[in-house]
């Protein structure tokens, strides 16, 4: 049975046309994101510094519970889009030729719009769910305790027998794929236009279904660059996180056509 609010959300979504893009368009988004970061570096670098500091703190607190650490960093990828909301507004202002700075990025976090707050809470639940699921898979199925990175590498990633690592990856992909499809344009869309949460999610899914190959490439780029940032003792996130945030704004602008007058 279709929920009564679903037809209204679908109608809300269809007011925002989705465009088809080329396979390599995500590379153009990265170029535009880098341009925005260079044009207005302070909000982005502070954003990246906070994320890198949080990652280091998490690593220090959970370094003896590596099963928790792997899930926490994977969960970070799920909630990352909502954390970049202020930088979407910076890119929007730069695109319009308006002044953009740290104050504008911070204004977005003033809780005037309940839609972004609710969406952020939902993403936090998704991230928490993955942390718990990841911990359950690693601790429940590993034949030996996993407390350190080298133990995870030897006993899970490089294990000669068993399918624990493959199962862990499959479960992660099963959760990450719908979250990515639901957020790829939803948060910039909520920031930029008057649309309900479910309507924004439907629009995001329509964008993915219309452009499966380019957005699969985009997902790989987002994940790969974020992991590279983490592997540099989190220091790379200072630049990578805002770069990807600005690029995500341009992904939204390419994928969702302007509103009709």
UniProtKB/TrEMBL annotation:
It comes from Aquincola tertiaricarbonis. Keywords: Membrane, Transmembrane, Transmembrane helix. Pfam families: DUF2189. The chain crosses the membrane at residues 44-61, 66-88, 116-142, 163-191, 215-245. It comes from the Bacteria. The keyword Transit peptide does not apply. InterPro entries: DUF2189 (IPR018692). This is DUF2189 domain-containing protein.
């Amino acid at each position: 049975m279709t929920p009564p609010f679903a037809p209204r959300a679908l109608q809300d979504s269809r007011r925002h046309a989705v465009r088809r893009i080329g396979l390599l368009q995500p590379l153009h988004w990265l170029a535009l994101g880098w341009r925005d970061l260079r044009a207005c570096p302070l909000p982005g670098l502070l954003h990246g510094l906070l994320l890198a500091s949080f990652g280091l703190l998490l690593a220090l607190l959970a370094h003896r519970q590596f099963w928790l650490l792997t899930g926490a960093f994977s969960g970070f990828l799920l909630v990352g889009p909502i954390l970049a909301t202020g930088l979407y507004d910076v890119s929007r202002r730069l695109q319009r030729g308006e002044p953009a700075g740290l104050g504008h990025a911070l204004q977005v976090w003033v809780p005037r719009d309940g839609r972004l707050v609710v969406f952020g809470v939902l993403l936090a639940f998704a991230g928490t769910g993955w942390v718990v699921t990841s911990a359950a898979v690693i601790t429940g199925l590993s034949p030996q305790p996993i407390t350190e990175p080298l133990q995870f590498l030897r006993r899970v990633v490089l294990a000669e027998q068993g399918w624990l690592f493959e199962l862990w990856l499959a479960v992660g992909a099963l959760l990450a794929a719908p979250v990515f499809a639901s957020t790829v344009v939803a948060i910039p869309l909520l920031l930029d236009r008057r649309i309900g949460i479910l309507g924004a999610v439907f629009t995001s899914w329509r964008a993915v279904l219309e452009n499966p190959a380019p957005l699969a490439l985009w997902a790989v780029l987002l994940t790969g660059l974020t992991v590279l940032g983490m592997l540099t003792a989190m220091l790379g996130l200072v630049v990578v996180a805002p770069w990807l945030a600005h690029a995500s704004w341009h992904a939204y602008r390419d994928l969702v056509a302007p509103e009709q007058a």
